[in-house]
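Open question from group meeting: does this chain pack into something compact, or does most of it stay loose? Before anyone orders reagents, we agreed to write out a predicted structure and look at it together. Recording both the input and the output here so the notebook holds the full record.
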Amino acid sequence: MKIITKIYQILILVLIVNSTYAQVSVFTFKVQNEYLQGDKIFIKNTPSTEIKIEVQFETRRDNQGNPKPGKIQVVLATKNTNDEVVLLSGWKEVLHTDFVAGETFLKKVYTLSIDKSKLSGKPIDLLMQQPGLSPVGNTQRYNYIIEPPVQTVYYNVIRQEEFYKSNCNIFSTGSLVVYTVAAKKYSSTISQTDADSKAQIDINTNGQNFANTTGNCILGKEIKTPKGTRDFEWSEYSENLLWDVSRITGQNVKIELFDKDASNQLTLIADNVPNNGSLVNCLTKALGIHYSAKIRITSLDSGEEYLSDEFGIFQD
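Structure tokens returned:
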């Protein structure tokens, strides 16, 4: 988002309200460099901004070098939109006796807290004024720049949605897959709702494709559930695995034994065998499995994966 920073100006007045004006006067005026950005006063994006200004005063001296009696009172101010003076600091008084012996100039540093709400687009000027007369003498002028507002950034919360693999053939059913959008993947400077909606768009756009790519096609009964056909001793246990060749594409398959949730492989039964519908004596006591499990058959040609129903090994 492009940020357009507006440049404003403020009018600061030094008002001189003493009849001995001519003896003490303002010579120079400047804002200290640390409060400038380039040649502009930097106003923070807060209710008030503190700056320091240097004012150099001058005194007139007699033939003996003594300061002539006099004083000056100054106040820093801006003008509002109605061109009315708004004070920004208290009155400051400089007397001829403040000057060091033999010195014509005196420098004072004033701290000024600028109320941002009082800024109205007027130029920063130092003007000198005699009682009852209009301001004269433009000594220094400043523009100012306001710090851009700090943007709040919102991040999405974690989002999950379930999808079923939908690109299986007519003889199988797609498995359930959970698509997850991690927290803080998307951000927004508008609102929390906007950040979360970006995560939802991700789910709507990619969730089903993810399920189709990573899910399984479940054949169910087409992979025969192994069952013992007679009483046997545990040490003699051996079972064949049967499947419907017509349901699995390709010439060769990989066969694995998984837990009943089909989430963890228990063992690899065969990494490459012909897709002929039978693997003799592949379930034996050597598997060491006494609880429920599932068989997964993967076509090495097409990559299709099929799961059996849950069954119990060593059970008639």
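Observations to bring back to the group:
Residues 1-21, 128-138, 225-232 have pLDDT under 50 and may be disordered.
Helices lie at 192-214.
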